[in-house]
Predict the structure.
Amino acid sequence: MSSSSTAMSQSPTATTPLPTAVTTTQQL
C-alpha cells in the first residue's frame, strides 16, 4: 500500500499510476 502512494506522488501522470509503479519497483 505504501508503495502505491509513493509511486503516485513520484509519477507526474496520475492517469496511469499502476504501470508507473511497476517500472519504479523494477528500477529500485
Summary: The helical segments are 2-10, 17-27. DSSP finds two helices and no strands in the chain.
